[in-house]
Amino acid sequence: MNNKMRSVLAILLAMTCISVNGEDPYLFYEWKVTYGTLSPLGVPQKVILINNQFPGPRINGTSNNNVHVNVFNQLDEPLLFTWNGIQQRKNSWQEGTLGTNCPIPPGTNYTYRFQVKDQIGSYYYYPTTGLLRAAGGYGPLTVVSRALIPVPFDKPEDDYTVLVGDWYTKSHTELRSMLDTGRRLGRPQGLVINGKSGKGDGKDEPMYTLTPGKTYRFRFCNVGMKDSINVRFQGHTMRLVEIEGSHVVQNVYDSLDIHLGQCLSVLVTADKEPKDYFIVASTRFTKEPHTATATIRYANSKSPASPQLPKAPEGWEWSLNQFRSFRWNLTNSAARPNPQGSYHYGKINISRTIKLVTSAGKVDGKLRYAINGISHVDPPTPIRLAQHYGVSDKVFKYDLIKDDYKPTGEDGQDKITLGPIVINGTWKSFVEFVIENPGKTVQSFHTSGYAFFAVSIEPGRWSPEKRKNYNLLDAVSRNTIQVYPNSFAVVMTALDNAGLWNIRANSMEKHYLGQQFYLSVHAATVSLQDEYNMPDNNLLCGIVKDLPKPTPFRA
């Protein structure tokens, strides 16, 4: 079979759901990951392509679909992908981070196999190794409800993805060298929408076409490296319907803040004068905002969009108030037919409170970012493999950071030390995470393996008395949370997903330089009921490479 035939077959497989022996349907994708030269901001540079596309191809599935992605690494360095927001139930083997997986060597391939179990919503994927994310390699991942599960809005005329993010014109190797030598990345050079910046001069080709009178779903994700963004439609309002897999109370907004790593979807009705309009995105909380546009065109329109762009809001207090307006739709079904609000998280006793305080400093003269005074370092042997092969004591120590951390340094920060950070979680416990940001910039954090209830964001420092202000009724269940300057955020979750899960800063600079950790959650007795076995195709590296494989789990 020649390469052309293989490519056609891969496309056909990716477009087809195949059901095997009564199992949930399978989706098959084959990706060739290469470099190419593109000009996202008008300057030619090396970009990571997937099947010659940037952004990469959309993975579009239905709740409970099994997804197989065969990744051929044709780059010149190791590669991993993570599936941001997919919970990988019982299956952290597919998480695609350096704590869970050995990277795919250049010139080889690896097949990810995961199920979008009991999930719906808007997500994305991206490469996690070597700051490759700065060169692209990201794409949309969407999960729709099964046909028998009602959704709280009529089926839209079409369903569009909008990946927005800041962009650097330096190569990922230049940026990586800056971080490796202790320098900050500085400000990005601009913004891109689906890999393009848009000139906003009326000469750009339309990115989306609308039929008058019809309603469309737009799924936005902030796939950037540093900045929060604000998005708005020229002349149109947005009805918010979903945030990271949860249906929400359908408030109407003129603009929406989307922080690093966050995704949401809105409905927009083409009910204005038939002509061109702009989607406008701009950076938030920056002295000199960057702006990008994408053209939406009413069918058969020949009138250009107005050059007058709607303005973004100012200040983070506005953003905080908008966060407080987001509410879980308690009456609507999610991936299962039971109402979202049937899970009464506010009535569950808190088993454990873990306080996480962020900081920055220097170690041996080089910049590092830390949580509770420790800056994470990925060991050569992935943590999950070390656990599975029974050699954890040779790779890392549990609980380097303490739950009730309080800085003791004169400037409110402790001296930063380096090491793999692994918190030992208790199976089936209900945990309260408090994230304090004493810095001057907005931060954003993501939890893999779980959705959590974002119950509070407030200025100042956290204390137990702050619990009286929590939203214990209809906080949105999601996987990312922003933390404003000199503020704290509180999220709650039940540790019911066995495995090893990465909790990380969504800022690529901070994540690369140590502001992340792993949460290890395992049942007392290991069983296939709680966690899947290591896949037969799992890559091995580090000290486990030549060890005999452990005995598989049993039911």
Write a concise keyword list for the protein shown above.
7-stranded mixed β-sheet; single chain; 555 residues; 5 helices; Immunoglobulin-like; 33 strands; 6-stranded mixed β-sheet; globular; mainly beta
Question: How many distinct folded domains?
Answer: 3
Specify the structural class.
mainly beta
CATH-derived architecture of the largest domain: Sandwich
Indicate the multimeric state.
Answer: single chain
CATH superfamily of the largest domain: Cupredoxins -  blue copper proteins
What profile does the largest beta sheet have? 7 strands, mixed
CATH topology of the largest domain: Immunoglobulin-like
Write a compact overview of the structure shown:
With 555 residues, the protein is mainly beta. Helices cover 8% and strands 36% of the residues.
Structure description:
- This protein is mainly beta and 555 residues long.
- It folds into three domains: 26-144, Cupredoxins -  blue copper proteins (Immunoglobulin-like, Sandwich); 158-325, Sandwich (Immunoglobulin-like), CATH 2.60.40; 345-522, Sandwich (Immunoglobulin-like), CATH 2.60.40.420.
- The protein has helices at residues 3-14, 172-180, 316-325, 383-388, 508-512; strands at 26-38, 45-50, 59-62, 66-73, 81-84, 109-115, 121-127, 139-144, 159-167, 190-193, 208-210, 215-222, 229-233, 238-243, 246-247, 252-253, 255-258, 263-269, 276-283, 291-298, 352-363, 366-371, 374-376, 417-419, 422-426, 430-437, 443-447, 452-459, 477-478, 480-483, 487-494, 499-505, 516-522.
- The strands form seven sheets. Strands 9, 10, 12, 14, 15, 16 and 18 form a seven-stranded mixed beta sheet that branches. It has a six-stranded mixed beta sheet with strand order 22-21-26-31-28-29.
- The two termini are 41 Å apart.
- The relative contact order is 0.13.
- The model is unreliable at 1-15 (pLDDT under 50).
